[in-house]
Amino acid sequence: MIKTRTLTLLQIALAMCVVAFASMRAQAQGYPTRPIEVIVPFAGGSASDVVTRVMLNEMSKSLGKNIIVDNRPGAGGNSGSAAATRAAPDGYTLVMSTSGPLAANKTLFKTLGYEPEKDFAPISLFAVLPNVIVINSKLPPKTLTEFIVYAKAHPKELNYGSVGVGSSQHLAGAYFEQIAGVELTHVPYRNIAQYTPDFIAGQVPLGFQFLPNVIGMLNSGDARALAVTSNTRMTALPNVPTAAEAGVKNYETFGWLALLAPAGTPKPIIDKIYKALAEAAKDPTVKTRFIELGAEPVSPGPEELAKFIASETVKWREIIKTAGIPPM
Length: 328
Description:
Helix 6 (168-180) crosses helix 11. The strands form two sheets. Strands 2-1-3-10-4-11 form a six-stranded mixed β-sheet, sandwiched between helices. The protein starts with a helix and ends in a 5-residue tail after the last helix. The protein is α/β, with parallel strands linked by helices. The chain has helices at residues 2-30, 47-63, 78-85, 99-108, 144-153, 168-180, 192-201, 211-220, 267-282, 284-292, 302-323; strands at residues 36-40, 67-71, 93-98, 120-130, 132-136, 159-162, 185-188, 206-209, 223-228, 254-262, 296-297. It is built from eleven helices and eleven strands. The longest helix is centred in the N-terminal third of the chain and has 29 residues, at 2-30. Helix 6 (168-180) links the parallel strand 6 and strand 7 (185-188).
């Protein structure tokens, strides 16, 4: 009797799993039936926002539905990222997030209100953005090595701006201090629009910025690019050396953008979204636009994104602790 009852329960459980799987497959086949919302935890017009919109616009063509961007800046990207974890795991609310909310902020903040490696279902990285080391063109240095000599002669006197504590620009600066042996002063801003006039005026004459944030100042002559922080030159800045070429070895850092869903989102839906993302990353128009924005399209997939977030968390934890940045 006990064996029969146990067998019956197992059969029922198996049948329920089969029904649930079939239901998920059916749900995915019909997905999406309405517009999709993507939370961007940064201000509209920021580099991450602009690049994300290029990708989402192309993805909407494959998915056959509009993708609506919901900008929710605040707390270094934590506010918007946390909001996404509270959304229904049905594929209709996604989040674009970055190295801050997904990796560095675990060390930078005492609490996040979410757990990056547990509360999200990874979809894929979709963009990598090298930082560009820029200085006000009125400063004497013409090369990166000259700048390092200049910075060592003026410890803590040179301010560099970012869009907030823990942002890619901030951590790129902190990492540069450790590699180059210089002392700089970080000045956080709420958005890039506040930083630009101070850079031009010379109050904050340094930056480790994404290209879209400084391309106007480079074109106007207000800024001078000393190096890019990737291991190869940027297509958009072919005459600007890499940090290694400019004399600073072992200094590579970049911003990255990833698309995720709330944990529990059915895998067939994740797979469908990833397929649209991968197709968009290969689109020539997307590639061209990304290059103009100083980004590179990538599409490694869900498993690779999960591993990448874990490795980035470890990397930035060590850099942040070495920099002595206290948790907020």
